[in-house]
Design goal:
- Its cofactor is Mo-bis(molybdopterin guanine dinucleotide).
- Residues 89-581 form the Molybdopterin oxidoreductase domain.
- It comes from Desulforhopalus singaporensis.
- Residues 29-81 form the Pyrogallol hydroxytransferase large subunit-like N-terminal domain.
- Residues 731-813 form the Molybdopterin dinucleotide-binding domain.
- By secondary structure, the chain is an alpha/beta fold.
- Among the domains are: 182-400 and 655-667, 3-Layer(aba) Sandwich (Dimethylsulfoxide Reductase, domain 2); 694-864, Barwin-like endoglucanases.
- The strands form ten sheets. It has an eight-stranded mixed β-sheet with strand order 7-6-21-20-19-8-9-16, with helices on one face. Strands 26, 29, 30, 31, 32, 33, 34 and 35 form an eight-stranded mixed β-sheet that branches. Strands 12-11-10-14-15 form a five-stranded parallel β-sheet, sandwiched between helices.
- Helix 5 packs across helix 15 and helix 13 packs across helix 14.
- The longest helix has 19 residues, at 120-138.
- The structure holds ligand MGD (2 copies) and molybdenum atom.
- Residues 150, 182, 222-225, 228-229, 231-233, 255-258, 260, 273, 275-276, 278, 355-361, 364, 704, 706-709, 711-713, 824-825 line the site of one ligand MGD.
- Residues 149-152, 159, 181-182, 363, 487-490, 494, 516-519, 522, 533, 571, 705, 707, 712-715, 787, 805-806, 809, 823-824 line the site of one ligand MGD.
Length: 871
C-alpha cells in the first residue's frame, strides 16, 4: 500500500504567546491542501545533528539533567489551529450600525448595538478622516493608542503598536502605558530594596539554576505554578526541572491558597495561605529568626542597611505589637506551628525562592509589602551566596548561549529604520501618557489626574519619584482623549474594574473607537470600527526564540502556513491601509521595504552574519545557538555582591540591600501604605479587603485569580479541545460553558452549592456568573477564578456572563503612589443562581441571551453582526 500523504509542507512557528518579547515554545506546523492539519513540537534535530550544538548538563547527587532534544510547547500551543479557525474570527472590516460620524454617534449603545460589514476602503476612509478631524479640532494628543498586551510571537507583523508608528509620523499621540502588571510588587517595592534590573525581580540571574541545583537543600515555590504558567511563554521544561529536584533530593515547599498543578505533583509540603496575606507570614518568619538568632548576622552587617528599623517593627518596639506566629496565624490562615516549622527549616537549610513571572501574591492590594519582605528574608539568609537566590523558574537562569545578545527587541535603531513598533508597549516615550490602570478615571473625570511614575516597565526607579499629570498643559499640546485606536482590545478582561471601563467606553467624550483584532472579543464589543487582523499562521515573518527557558535558543524564519482568513490583514498591513489615505505615508512607513527585505535586515541587526549565512538560514529555516563554551563561568545571581559588596555594589542609593529606604522616606513622608520599611497593612483609604473588615460580613471570601492553565490571559478562550476539560469550563444546566469558580466543599455546603451549579460571584462592583467547581484543592475562605474569560455582558457595567472576573476587581491602584493593578486578594460573596433569578435576567435582557453561541467555542462572531453575518 502506498503511504497516505499527510502534509504538503511543514513550516516553523514560535508558539509562545508572550508577544513582542521574542518567542519560545517552538513548533512545527503541517499544512495540507492549504489547511493546517497539525501543530507539533519542534525536533531540534530536524536539520541539525546533536554534535553541531553544544549542550549543557547539570548534576546533583549522582543525577543529571540536560535539555530535551525537542521543544515542549503547552497544550494550547499544540491546539492553536482551533484558535486560528475559530468561529470568533473577525471576517471583514465592520462598523457599529448606529455610529454615524456625520450624525448621531450613539456612544450610549456601545456594548449593545451590533455591527455591519464595510469595505476595507470605507474603513480606511472613515479612520483617516476621523484622525484628520480630531487633529484639527483637538490636536494629536487627543488620540490614545492602546498598543500593549501579550500576543502571538511575530516581529515584522508584531501584534501591538503599529498604529503608533503611523500616528507618530502624523505628529504624535497619547500613549496608554502598560503598568508592570506581572511585577507590581517587585516594581513598586523590591526595586527600592535591591535596585537592579527593569521590573524589580532579582537581576542578574545568570546561572542561578545551576547554583541552586548544586547547593540548595530546599526551594520554596512561593506563589508559583511551574506546571502552568511557563506554558504561556516557553513550554514545559520547568516541569522537567522540578522532577529533577525530586530525583536529586531537593525539598520543594509550596506556599499558595490552592494545591496548584505544580504543588499537586512536586510538593513535599503544601502550605495553604489566604490570598494576599503573605506579608503577615513573612513578618512572623522574620520574628522567629530575630528571636532565635537564625540568620546571617555578618552578612546583614556588611550587605544591608535598616535591619534595626525592621527589627523594631517586627519585635513590636515600634507599635507595641510583636509580629509573632500567633499574631500572623489568624491573618494568613496558616497555623502558628506551621509558620514556626517553615521559619526554622528556612533558617537551617540553604534555600532559594522560586516564582515564575512575578507570582500571584504580588498583584494584590499593597503588593509592594510582601515583595519587599521577601527581599529582606533572602537578605537575612545571605542572598547571592551558594544556593540562595530568587528565581523566575527557568525564564532566566539557564546556561548562556554562544553569540546570543544581538536581538531585535528593545532596539530603538530598528524601530527607527524599519518602522517596527518594538518599544511601543513598555516604555513611555510620548509626552502625554496615561497609565493603563487609570484609563477609566481619565475618561470619566473632568479633573486632570496626577500620578507618580508612568509605570513603564523599563523605567528607572527614578521615574517613581516624578509627578505626572494628564492632560499635559495646553501649550504642550495637551488634550483630553477623543479617539482611541486599540490593537489589544482587552482592557476590560485583563485590567482593573472592567465594569467601570465598560461605562467609560460609553463616554460621549470618546467620539471614535477603532479596534484592530483577529478575534471579535472583549473590548471589540464597545468599538465603532473593527479591523480584521490576522494570525501568525497567515504571514511571513522572522522570530527569535531566545528566552532562556527555551532550552535551545534559536532564530527561525516563519513562513506563511495558510492564506489570510476572510479579508484579514496583518497588523502592519491594517495600519498601512489607513496610511494610504495620507499622501506619501505608506512609502514613509515601509521605506519601500518588502517583508523579505525586512527579514534579512532583522537578521542583520541580530548580528546574524557572525552566526550563520543568510542562505543557510533561509534553506534550513532555523538556527540553534550552541551553549557558550565557558557558560559555567558566569557568576550566579548576586554572587559578586555577596563576595564583595564594596567593590560590587547594588544600584540602590547606598549600594546595599536597603531594608529601610531613605529615598522613600524623603520623597513620600506621609505615605501610610508604602513607608520606608514594609509593614502589614490591615486596611487603608484605598483598600479595605481583609477578612477582618466589616465588609467581610457581606463578602466573606477572598478572590484568588491566577493565570489560566488553558488560556494566556484573554487568549485561547475559544479553543474547542481545551474547553472540554472541566477545569477550563463548567457546562451549566442551560448548556452554556461557564468559567469555573473553585470552592472548598465546606464553603460550598454552607451556601447549598453543588459541583456544576451556576453561581454568581459578586461585590459592590457587580456580578460575574461562573460554574461551581467544588474541590479540596482550594483552602476555605477563598473563591478562585482565573482572569481572562471572554467578556459576555448581560448588563453593561453590572452583570457579566462570560466569567470575566476583572469586571469586578478593585478600581483603586496598588497604593497612593503606585499605579499598579489589583488582580486578586479582594472580597466577594458567592451564591447559587436560582432559576427564578436567571429567568428574570432572560426576561429583562433578551438580546444578551439571544447571541449566537456555540458551546464548543463560545460566542460566534455573528453574535455581534446585525444580519447574523448572512450578507
Ligand atoms: N485578575 C487578574 N488580572 C490580571 C492578572 C492576574 O494575575 N489576575 N495578571 C495581569 C498580567 S501579569 C498581565 S501580563 C495582563 C495581561 O493582559 P494582556 O496582555 O492585555 O492580555 P492578552 O490577552 O495576552 O493580550 C492582549 C490582547 O492581544 C490580542 N492579540 C494576540 N495576538 C494578537 C495579534 O497578533 N494582533 C492583535 N491585534 N492582537 C493580538 C489578544 O487576543 C488579546 O485580546 O493581565 C493582568 N491581569
Ligand atoms: N498558561 C498560561 N501561562 C502564562 C500566562 C497565562 O495566562 N496562562 N500568563 C503569562 C504571564 S503574562 C505571566 S505574568 C505569567 C504569570 O506567572 P505567575 O505569576 O507565576 O502566575 P499566577 O498564576 O499569577 O500565580 C502563580 C501561583 O500563585 C499562587 N497564588 C495566587 N495568589 C496567591 C497569594 O495571594 N499568595 C500566595 N502565596 N500564592 C498565591 C497560585 O497558586 C498560582 O498558581 O505567566 C505567563 N504564562
Ligand atoms: Mo504578565
Amino acid at each position: 500500500m502506498r503511504p497516505v500523504k499527510t502534509k504538503d509542507k511543514t513550516v516553523l512557528r514560535s508558539l509562545g504567546l508572550g508577544g513582542y518579547f521574542g518567542g519560545g515554545a517552538e513548533g512545527m506546523v503541517d499544512v495540507k491542501d492549504g489547511k493546517i492539519v497539525r501543530v507539533r513540537p519542534l525536533r531540534y534535530g530536524w536539520k541539525y545533528k546533536k554534535e553541531d550544538i553544544r549542550q549543557w548538563k547539570m548534576e546533583r547527587n549522582g543525577k543529571t539533567i540536560e535539555p530535551t532534544w525537542k521543544s515542549l510547547p503547552g497544550p494550547f500551543s499544540l491546539a492553536y489551529k482551533k484558535r486560528v479557525y475559530s468561529p470568533n474570527r473577525v471576517p471583514y472590516p465592520m462598523k457599529r450600525i448606529d455610529w454615524d460620524p456625520n450624525g448621531e454617534r450613539n456612544p450610549q449603545n456601545r456594548g449593545k448595538s451590533k455591527f455591519v460589514r464595510i469595505s476595507w476602503d470605507e474603513a480606511a476612509e472613515l479612520i483617516s478622516s476621523e484622525i484628520r478631524r480630531v487633529h484639527e479640532k483637538y490636536g494629536y494628543n487627543a488620540i490614545l493608542m492602546q498598543g500593549d498586551g501579550h500576543g502571538e510571537c511575530k516581529t515584522i507583523n508584531t501584534p501591538h503598536g503599529h498604529p503608533g508608528v503611523l500616528l507618530e509620523y502624523l505628529g504624535g499621540f497619547t500613549l496608554q502605558v502598560r503598568n508592570p502588571d506581572s511585577w507590581e510588587g517587585w516594581y513598586w517595592g523590591a526595586k527600592h530594596v535591591w535596585g537592579q534590573g527593569a521590573q524589580g525581580i532579582m537581576y542578574p540571574a545568570a546561572n542561578i539554576i545551576k547554583d541552586t541545583i548544586e547547593h540548595s537543600d530546599m526551594v520554596l515555590f512561593w506563589g508559583c505554578d511551574p506546571e502552568t504558567t511557563p506554558w504561556g511563554f516557553v513550554g514545559q521544561f520547568a516541569s522537567r526541572l522540578c522532577y529533577f529536584l525530586t530525583e536529586a533530593g531537593i525539598d520543594q515547599v509550596y506556599v499558595c491558597p490552592d494545591c496548584n498543578y505544580g504543588a499537586a505533583i512536586h510538593a513535599d509540603k503544601w502550605i495553604p495561605i489566604l490570598p494576599n496575606t503573605d506579608a503577615a507570614m513573612q513578618l512572623a518568619i522574620i520574628y522567629i529568626w530575630l528571636t532565635e538568632g537564625t540568620y546571617d548576622k555578618e552578612y546583614v552587617k556588611t550587605h544591608t542597611v535598616g535591619m534595626d528599623k525592621v527589627a523594631d517593627y517586627v519585635l513590636g518596639k515600634e507599635d507595641g505589637v510583636p509580629k509573632t506566629p500567633e499574631w500572623a496565624s489568624p491573618k494568613c490562615g496558616v497555623p502558628e506551628w506551621t509558620i514556626k516549622a517553615l521559619a526554622r527549616e528556612f533558617g537551617a537549610k540553604t534555600t532559594s525562592i522560586a516564582h515564575y513571572f512575578g507570582g500571584g501574591f504580588i498583584r494584590g492590594p499593597f503588593s509592594h509589602e510582601p515583595a519587599r519582605l521577601e527581599c529582606i528574608m533572602l537578605g537575612m539568609q545571605g542572598l547571592g551566596g551558594p544556593g540562595v537566590h530568587q528565581h523566575q523558574w527557568t525564564y532566566f537562569g539557564l546556561p548562556r548561549a554562544e553569540g546570543l545578545g544581538g536581538t531585535f527587541f528593545w532596539n530603538p535603531e530598528i524601530e527607527e529604520q524599519l518602522a517596527l513598533p518594538v518599544l511601543s508597549a513598555v516604555s513611555a516615550w510620548q509626552e502625554q501618557v496615561i497609565p493603563k490602570t487609570l484609563i477609566q478615571n481619565a475618561f470619566l473625570s473632568d479633573e486632570p489626574i496626577t500620578f507618580f511614575g508612568t509605570g513603564a516597565q523599563n523605567a528607572l526607579v527614578a521615574d517613581q519619584f516624578i509627578k505626572y499629570t494628564y492632560p499635559i498643559e495646553a501649550e504642550k499640546k495637551g488634550s483630553p482623549i477623543h479617539m482611541i485606536w486599540a490593537d489589544s482590545p482587552c482592557r476590560i478582561t485583563c485590567w482593573n474594574y472592567g465594569h467601570e471601563t465598560e461605562i467609560a467606553m460609553r463616554s460621549p467624550q470618546i467620539e471614535c473607537f477603532v479596534a484592530q483584532h483577529p478575534w471579535f472579543e472583549n473590548d471589540c464589543v464597545y468599538a465603532d470600527i473593527v479591523l480584521p487582523a490576522n494570525t501568525y499562521m497567515e504571514v511571513d515573518d522572522i522570530v527569535t526564540n531566545i528566552r532562556q527557558g527555551t532550552m535551545q535558543p534559536n532564530i527561525m524564519i516563519t513562513e506563511k502556513a495558510i492564506e489570510p482568513i476572510g479579508e484579514s490583514k496583518s497588523d502592519a498591513e491594517c495600519v498601512r491601509e489607513v496610511a494610504k489615505k495620507f499622501e506619501g505615508m505608506e512609502e514613509e512607513m515601509t521605506g519601500g521595504k518588502t517583508t523579505a527585505d525586512l527579514q534579512k535586515a532583522i537578521w542583520g541587526y541580530m548580528g546574524g552574519e557572525k552566526l550563520v549565512s543568510w542562505e543557510e538560514l533561509k534553506e534550513k529555516g532555523y538556527w540553534i545557538y550552541p551553549t557558550a563554551e565557558d557558560w559555567d563561568q558566569d557568576p550566579p545571581g548576586f554572587r559578586k555582591f555577596y563576595e564583595d559588596p564594596e567593590k560590587h555594589p547594588l544600584t540602590t542609593p547606598t549600594g546595599k540591600l536597603e531594608f529601610y529606604s531613605e529615598a522613600l522616606a524623603k520623597a513620600f513622608p506621609n505615605d501610610k501604605e508604602r513607608g520606608p520599611i514594609p509593614r502589614w497593612i490591615e486596611k487603608s483609604h484605598n483598600h479595605d479587603e481583609r477578612l477582618s473588615s466589616h465588609r467581610a460580613r457581606v463578602f466573606p471570601l477572598l478572590v484568588m485569580s491566577n493565570h489560566g492553565r488553558w488560556r494566556v490571559h484573554a487568549q485561547c478562550d475559544d479553543i474547542t479541545w481545551t474547553r472540554e476539560t472541566p477545569t477550563m469550563k463548567v457546562t451549566g444546566p442551560d448548556g452554556y460553558k461557564y468559567e469555573p469558580c473553585w470552592m472548598h466543599p465546606s464553603e460550598a455546603e454552607k451556601r447549598g452549592i453543588k459541583n456544576g451549579d451556576i453561581v454568581k460571584i459578586y461585590n459592590e462592583r457587580g456580578i460575574v456568573l461562573a460554574g461551581a467547581y467544588v474541590t479540596e484543592r482550594l483552602r476555605p475562605g477563598v473563591a478562585y477564578i482565573d482572569h481572562g474569560a471572554r467578556h459576555d455582558p448581560i448588563k453593561t457595567g453590572e452583570i457579566e456572563r462570560g466569567g470575566a472576573i476583572n469586571t469586578i476587581t478593585p478600581g483603586a491602584i496598588t497604593s497612593d503612589n503606585c499605579v499598579g493593578q489589583i488582580g486578586g486578594g479582594y472580597l466577594v460573596e458567592v451564591q447559587k443562581v436560582t432559576g427564578e433569578e436567571m429567568d428574570g435576567w432572560r426576561r429583562d435582557f433578551p438580546e444578551a441571551f439571544a447571541r449566537k453561541y456555540d458551546p464548543a467555542a463560545g460566542l460566534r462572531v455573528e453574535a455581534w453582526i446585525d444580519d447574523g453575518g448572512d450578507k
